[in-house]
Design goal:
Layout: E1 27-31, E2 37-40, E3 53-57, E4 59-61, E5 65-70, E6 91-100, E7 105-111, E8 121-123, E9 129-137, E10 140-145, H1 149-159, H2 166-169, H3 178-181, E11 189-192, H4 204-212, E12 216-222, E13 245-249, H5 251-262, E14 267-270, H6 272-281, E15 291-295, E16 310-314, H7 321-330, H8 332-344, E17 355-359
Parallel strand pairs: 1-17, 3-12, 3-14, 4-11, 14-16
Antiparallel strand pairs: 1-2, 5-6, 5-8, 6-7, 7-10, 8-9, 9-10, 12-13, 13-15, 16-17
């Protein structure tokens, strides 16, 4: 399909720069076979049935945005630089971590990448530095850090900042409270460089209400990569290469979900990350099996869903892989109508925005 088919106009003022408070006060647009239904996220338990299974992604966002300075190179360090004067200056560098590539190595998006070359040293403070080992193009570099393993994890958490998406940073700076608000209340497994944003709406009270309704609560892990925010540059969906992300679904969790579905319960995925892992782990019959490793599943209209029956998700960017996914799940025309309704009725969009609850369209 042409990527243009997934375009729509979104007024800038509909992009949420701040989270809702409390989290479950966000609005919820219910999109099913009937009329659109305007609710709030706190109403979710009323929309579930006893025996349903709610599945969440417990990946924890790390402080993946690092600010540093390229070390001074000294005189004559750069061909063509008069007496090396420019090279005596430190150059401010921002690195957005993308994906771990080793105990002490991360791939990162560096700005300004054109000021870096292989072998450069970047200081991120008195106790953390990195050397540039590879240049991958389009601003991506590989960084080998001065620490490894758990020590590196701790240092990143200390010196880094919350990796807010570009459309929030365009409207305001990072704030200390973002470290908490850009994190689900149930986050546990560190590794994401972007939040599984549908989960940001949950509070401890809402989780308790879901369980009191008689719905099962299950967990999986998918470490969200920064590719979530990358625009699709190809003209058709066939021309787009999906980013891969590490994920894990245990055999025990798969068995419990299979049993609940066999008893008539619906599988309700919280977020597109949960859905992508569940569909990656599903057999043709719809039965789930254990899964651990990378998935690059790219879901567009025409995909035949095997496992997930309902999806709680935020409102996504035009022409994004995530909007393509929800159109595959509920139908292109239905989702365009739902988004038009949301825009006309002042719903808030993207990571800190409102949510919708989608029912899978019959094949």
């Amino acid at each position: 399909m042409r990527v243009d088919a997934f375009d729509f106009d979104l007024p800038k003022e509909r992009i949420a720069l701040e989270p809702a408070e409390p989290r479950d006060s966000s609005r919820l647009l219910v999109v099913g076979d009937g009329a659109l239904d305007d609710r709030h996220v706190r109403d979710l338990p009323q929309l579930l049935e006893p025996g349903d299974v709610v599945v969440v992604n417990v990946s924890r966002v790390i402080n993946a945005r690092l600010s540093g300075e390229r070390a001074r190179r000294g005189l004559g360090g750069h061909t063509g630089s008069p007496a090396g004067v420019e090279e005596l200056k430190g150059v401010a560098i921002e690195a957005m971590l993308l994906k771990r590539a080793g105990a002490d190595v991360w791939r990162a998006l560096a700005r300004p990448a054109k000021r870096l070359k292989t072998g450069d040293e970047v200081s991120f403070g008195p106790r953390l530095s990195a050397s540039v080992t590879d240049l991958h193009g389009e601003g991506e570099v590989s960084l080998r850090f001065s620490k490894a393993g758990a020590a590196l994890d701790a240092a990143i958490e200390e010196v880094g900042a919350a990796p807010l998406p570009p459309y929030i940073l365009a409207g305001r700076p990072v704030r200390p409270q973002d470290t908490e608000t850009y994190q689900t209340v149930y986050a546990r497994e560190a590794g994401s460089v972007a939040a599984p944003t549908a989960g940001l709406h949950f509070t401890d009270r809402l989780i308790a209400d879901v369980k009191a309704r008689g719905a099962a609560w299950e967990e999986l892990t998918l470490h969200v990569g920064a590719g979530t925010f990358r625009p699709v540059s190809a003209e058709t969906t066939d021309g787009h290469k999906m980013h891969s992300e590490w994920c894990s679904l245990s055999a025990e969790t798969a068995e419990r979900i299979n049993a609940a579905r066999a008893a008539g319960g619906r599988l309700v995925a919280v977020g597109t990350t949960s859905l992508r892992l569940l569909e990656s782990a599903a057999l043709a019959s719809g039965e789930l099996q254990a899964f651990e490793g990378e998935t690059d599943i790219f879901i567009t209209p025409g995909y035949r869903f095997r496992a997930v029956d309902a999806l709680l998700t935020n409102f996504h960017l035009p022409k994004s892989t995530l909007f393509m996914l929800v159109c595959a799940f509920s139908g292109l025309e239905r989702m365009k109508a739902a988004y038009a309704h949301a825009i006309a009725n002042d719903y808030r969009f993207y990571s800190y925005g409102d949510a919708c609850l989608l029912t899978r369209r019959a094949p």
